[in-house]
Design goal:
Layout lengths: L2 H4 L1 E5 L9 H8 L3 H14 L6 E2 L1 E3 L2 E3 L3 H8 L3 H13 L3 E3 L5 E3 L6 E5 H14 L31 H12 L6 H11 L3 H14 L3 H4 L9 H6 L9 H8 L8 E2 L5 E2 H26 L8
Length: 296
């Protein structure tokens, strides 16, 4: 094969989802990310015929590219080159080899090529077959008729049995907050009808506990938290429940130990003793025959 026939042409092949790749998406999200992505594509093009390796050939020496030289090679600002190289190494699109060469690991998957001889053969066959002279990887794809859009209304998804059970539970839970998270926790557990009823019963009992009734329900847990922590298993003291349901009247409170008296009786006795003390003071003043009269 002659030198002319052996000359090879290269091109960069990008898949249609190239810009959806996680690494490329992240790169574009950065400040000036579009410039970093363009710089990366220029590096890919410059390294096509060297299997993704970029290094300067100075006589018989291999010299790593300096930032300034890469900026000239790609027509990119030097500051942009410095930041882009750091980011590209961070996400694994560019590696620095031991000899200082830059290795673009994805280039081998993106390269297309053909020799001069292959180009002439393709052109000859194209003339015989109607004139398509594009390389195989760049030939136009025949137009495809777009699919007929289905105008039928989508059927509404019916709730499954666990979603229905959750709605029943939700009716009883007093704190209506974070319904989505609560529903996810409930459905994930896939409770039976029996367990659902146990949950509802537990909610009805705990509704009457001092903790849930305090400060207008501020201490009622979020429903998702209640479900995740299996709080239907909590035990609520009967004594606490009864004391909460039937609070003692002040007049029934007993003071003074074992043989004490009611509060009402205690206050009445205290008033009587105060009146008697005042009378004794009046009598003492009167017997001395002087002083101001103390009126009751």
């Amino acid at each position: 094969m002659s030198e002319r026939d052996g000359k090879r042409y290269y091109w960069l092949k990008l898949k249609e989802d190239f810009f959806d790749d996680d690494a490329i998406s992240w790169l574009e999200e950065q400040e000036n990310g579009k410039e970093y992505t363009l710089f990366y594509l220029k590096l890919c093009l410059k390294s096509l015929q060297y299997d993704g390796i970029l290094i300067r050939h100075v006589g018989k020496m291999l010299v790593p590219f300096e930032t300034k030289k890469l900026a000239e090679l790609t027509n990119t600002k030097e500051d942009t080159v410095m930041i882009a190289l750091t980011l590209l190494q961070k996400i694994g699109l560019v590696e620095v080899m031991e000899n200082g060469a830059l290795y673009l690991s994805q280039v081998n998957k993106m390269v297309g090529s053909e020799t001069n001889s292959a180009v002439r053969k393709r052109l000859y066959r194209a003339r015989l077959n109607g004139g398509n002279v594009l390389p195989p990887s760049r030939q136009e794809v025949p137009a495809i008729e777009p699919p007929v859009k289905d105008t039928a209304q989508p059927q509404e998804k019916k709730p499954n049995k666990f979603e229905e059970r959750f709605e029943e539970f939700w009716k009883h839970y007093p704190r209506k907050i974070g319904k989505g998270a609560a529903k996810k926790s409930f459905v994930k557990r896939k409770p039976s009808q029996e367990l659902t009823q146990r949950m509802i019963n537990a909610v009805e009992v705990q509704k009457k506990s001092p903790q849930w009734m305090r400060d207008k329900g501020q201490f009622i847990p979020h429903p998702s938290t209640w479900l995740n922590q299996e709080r239907w298993e909590d035990e609520v003291s009967n004594t606490v429940m009864e004391s909460n349901q039937k609070p003692a009247r002040p007049s029934q409170t007993v003071v003074g130990g074992k043989n004490g008296m009611s509060v009402d009786e205690y206050m009445r006795q205290r008033e009587i003793r105060a009146q008697e003390a005042l009378r004794r003071i009046e009598m003492a003043e009167a017997s001395r025959g002087g002083g101001n009269e103390i009126r009751w």
